Amino acid sequence: MENLEVLEYSLHRVDVKTDSPVSMALDGTAEGLKTYTQLVLTELLESPRSRFFQFKDMDELVPSSLVAISNGEDWTTKSTQIAQKLYDVELVVQDKIKHLTDVRMGGLLQLKITHDECLKFVIIKIDNSEYLDEDNLDLKSGLPTSKSRLQKAAVITFTPEHTVDEVIVSDSKSTITEYWYLSFLIAEQLQDSETNTKNAFNAIDNLLTKEVKKVSPVDYWFLRNDIVNHFRNEDSLAYDELVDKVKAHKPETDEFKEKFDSFVEKFEELPTKAAKPFDTQFDLVSSSIKARIVRKVMLDTNFELRINGEVDDLKSRIFARHDDKGKFIKIYSDKGYDEFKTAEDN
User: In this structure, are 175 and 289 located in the same domain?
Assistant: First the structure.
């Protein structure tokens, strides 16, 4: 990552079992800090798992502190106040969930950087149970590069006029932890979950119709069934997980096999290239796409197959075949059998 300069940095251990956040030493003179920052920014800015937010009130502690720092106020004082804010929030959360589990201990890494001629602040909650060398607190040997260790993150970009231009929030979990953005950052989504659900499903459905259905109807139905199943039965969508599911699909026809890589590439680009873009991490509101889930297949003049939602193990329940009389589909169905069985079937 080019044009990156680390201007300020701090690391605090945030653990609700202690009395307050603990400032931890970093080897800021080492190239390791810049290298690690590059890794983190690449993960955050190019990640297929993020969501755009805006601060609800610029007078709240985190945004007002960042504005103050951008105007030259003391980094150490303000970054410590931000760490204290997270600690206070996690104390409240811990009290609510104390009978179930504990808030994960972690390190709060804060960075003030310039990147692509823009001032940015990076705030990351990181697992620190394994990454930190307790003897010398050496950044070079310890900070985790695995994205699974980055619990929660926010990248805040400023304009030259010291105003917030963009807030990107992400989480290692499939859904963004509410207390991170709602209680700590005091931020709200730019696009609500219902709109994201509609835009994402419609974009995917349109892509399947355009790129798959005419080439290989059987692949279209199997892929669409998997997509509907995800939207109907998952609480949230992390787009990279859905991309992985699509990549795991085995094309049923040679025609689609030739186009498969191109289709996957277009699928990956949908969040930003669709007519109505969508975030890559949000809660799913399946009720908002209820009408779009239903599909009909005309079988003959007086027959149609109505698919109302996902079908468990579709590939093993419906088959296209032909015999001396012609082409037909075979569907395994106890209820259908009971309706049409004859004496010969007994």
Answer: no
